[in-house]
Structures are given as structure tokens and as C-alpha cells.
Write a structure and sequence with these properties.
The protein has one domain (6-66). It is 82% helix and 0% strand. The protein has helices at residues 6-22, 29-66.
Length: 67
């Protein structure tokens, strides 16, 4: 999975949520399912990015405290 900037990911998550809300009708069930899959993928990317940033912060904090 390619990494995306945090603000871009958050923007995409918001757009997917808006699309899901607009598609909440029985005749759009297929679109809603696809939208949920896209949203789940974006949330996983967001989680991975947050974990990476937490590791970087922890590494910087550890280096600062060692000096």
C-alpha cells in the first residue's frame, strides 16, 4: 500500500463517508458495499500512517533523552 499524507487520507475518508450517506437507499446497495470497502481500505492506511508516525516520534524522543 502506498503511503499518503495524513491530511489527504482524512479528506478521502470524509468523502467516502459522504458518498455512503448519499447512497443509503436499497437500489444503491452495491455502491454502498463498494464504498464501505474503499472506506475500510482508507482507514487501514490511516492506521498504518499513524503507527509509523508514532514509531518515528518514539525514536526521536528516545534519541533526545539519550543525549
Amino acid at each position: 500500500m502506498a503511503k499518503k499524507p495524513l491530511c489527504k487520507l482524512i479528506e478521502q475518508v470524509s468523502e467516502e463517508i459522504e458518498k455512503l450517506e448519499a447512497d443509503r437507499h436499497p437500489k444503491f446497495f452495491k455502491h454502498e458495499t463498494e464504498g464501505r470497502k474503499r472506506l475500510a481500505t482508507l482507514l487501514l492506511e490511516l492506521n498504518d500512517l499513524e503507527e509509523d508516525e508514532a514509531k518515528i516520534y518514539k525514536l526521536k524522543f528516545t534519541k533526545t533523552n539519550i543525549k
